[in-house]
């Protein structure tokens, strides 16, 4: 077995998995309360952008060779109904428009937790998120994002029937060509901690366990993905990636539509901090990215996209 391991060239020649920038998506936070880009305290090297800096950042990404972004908006005003989420001139709609104008593929995260004052992913009835009232609003949000120029709508709220509701809303507003990337198997994970800092979306009471999945379940993830496919998802997702590679692999074996994986904020911060402090060697980053593609992802949403672009790891070694 060692014959094909004798040089980097030979190792590259026979490698089964390559990291390709076209397959990476950079998540981006645009925060209406900011005046300048600000580093996220719990995510070293990752910034939240003020609305006016989006153009420059979009150009920077393009010049680095990054094609795809997943946009999150953080509004300056929140209320129980999350009305800013479907404001045609809301923070995410404006950011989507700018990224699209700069030629990036714009995926719009669709959720309400950044927009509600209680921080839950939908509207409340008593103290729980009301499923069917919420998915009606998801339809409205999807249409506002598509009108702003989003190329892909990515619902992350884990409401039942959300994909169907969004598909119908898009179709009836003339957006039958806009694909849906469904956060299908999204677990109630501690790995979202740093994101909630950036998105200011920590629930003010309770947690998300009544809508996001129980980490103990893998078969249930298959049911979630099957349902989303029936409802019309074009791309399904497993999230987080690192602790759920088994789910990703199983999805790869069963389904033939594109599968995305989301390497979430906690994965990023764990690895980034370990590398920055010298606890792990820098190659831990590409080893991590490789593990997700090796498990079967077609698309990887990762905060390391810029790092990988800078490293030139997508290029052929000469
Ligand atoms: C909102 C949403 C979350 C993430 C993506 N969309 C957080 C959550 O469910 O609390 C997590 C992303 C990350 O941690 O990088 N529904
Ligand atoms: Zn949410």
Written description of the protein model:
The protein is of the alpha/beta class and 318 residues long. It has a single domain (17-310), classed as TIM Barrel, CATH 3.20.20.70. It is built from 11 helices and 12 strands. It has helices at residues 8-13, 54-64, 91-101, 131-148, 162-172, 193-199, 219-231, 245-254, 265-276, 284-295, 305-311; strands at residues 24-31, 38-39, 47-49, 68-74, 105-110, 124-125, 128-129, 152-155, 181-186, 235-239, 259-263, 299-302. The strands form 2 sheets. Strands 1, 2, 3, 4, 5, 8, 9, 10, 11 and 12 form a 10-stranded mixed β-sheet that branches. It has a two-stranded antiparallel ribbon with strand order 6-7. Helix 3 links the parallel strand 4 (68-74) and strand 5. The structure holds ligand PBG and zinc ion (ZN). Ligand PBG is lined by residues 109, 111, 113, 121, 156-157, 192, 195-196, 201, 208, 264-265.
Task: Summarize the topology.
Elements: H1 8-13, E1 24-31, E2 38-39, E3 47-49, H2 54-64, E4 68-74, H3 91-101, E5 105-110, E6 124-125, E7 128-129, H4 131-148, E8 152-155, H5 162-172, E9 181-186, H6 193-199, H7 219-231, E10 235-239, H8 245-254, E11 259-263, H9 265-276, H10 284-295, E12 299-302, H11 305-311
Parallel strand pairs: 1-3, 1-4, 1-12, 4-5, 5-8, 9-10, 10-11, 11-12
Antiparallel strand pairs: 2-3, 6-7
Helix pairs in contact: 3-4, 4-5
| Overall body shape | globular
Known CATH architecture: Alpha-Beta Barrel
How many β strands by DSSP? 12
Taking pLDDT < 50 over at least 5 consecutive residues as the criterion, the unreliable ranges are: none
What's the story with the biggest beta sheet? Answer: 10 strands, mixed
């Amino acid at each position: 077995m060692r014959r094909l391991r004798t040089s980097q060239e030979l190792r590259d020649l026979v490698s089964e998995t390559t990291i390709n920038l076209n397959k990476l998506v950079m998540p981006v936070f645009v925060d209406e309360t900011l005046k300048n880009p600000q580093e996220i305290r719990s995510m070293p090297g990752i910034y939240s952008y003020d609305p006016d800096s989006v153009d420059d950042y979009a150009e920077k990404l393009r010049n680095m060779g990054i094609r795809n972004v997943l946009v999150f908006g953080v509004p300056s005003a929140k209320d129980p109904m999350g009305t800013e989420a479907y404001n045609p001139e809301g923070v995410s709609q404006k950011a989507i428009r700018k990224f699209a104008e700069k030629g990036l593929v714009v995926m719009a995260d669709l959720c309400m937790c950044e927009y509600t004052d209680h921080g839950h992913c939908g509207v409340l009835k008593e103290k729980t998120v009301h499923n069917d009232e919420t998915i009606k609003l998801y339809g409205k949000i999807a249409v506002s994002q598509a009108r702003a120029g989003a190329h892909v709508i990515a619902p992350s709220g884990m409401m039942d029937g959300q994909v169907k509701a969004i598909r119908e809303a898009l179709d009836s507003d003339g957006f039958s060509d806009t694909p849906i990337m469904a956060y299908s198997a999204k677990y109630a994970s501690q790995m979202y901690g740093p994101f909630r800092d950036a998105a200011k979306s920590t629930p003010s009471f309770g947690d998300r366990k009544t809508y996001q999945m129980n980490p103990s379940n893998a078969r249930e993830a298959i049911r979630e993905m099957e349902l989303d496919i029936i409802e019309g998802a074009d791309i399904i997702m497993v999230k987080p990636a690192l602790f759920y590679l088994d789910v990703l692999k199983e999805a790869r074996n069963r389904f033939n539509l594109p599968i995305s994986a989301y390497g979430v904020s906690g994965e990023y911060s764990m690895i980034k901090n370990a590398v920055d402090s010298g606890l792990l060697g820098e190659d831990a980053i590409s080893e991590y990215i490789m593990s997700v593609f090796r498990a079967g992802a077609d698309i990887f949403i990762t905060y390391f996209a810029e790092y990988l672009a800078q490293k030139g790891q997508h290029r052929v070694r000469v």
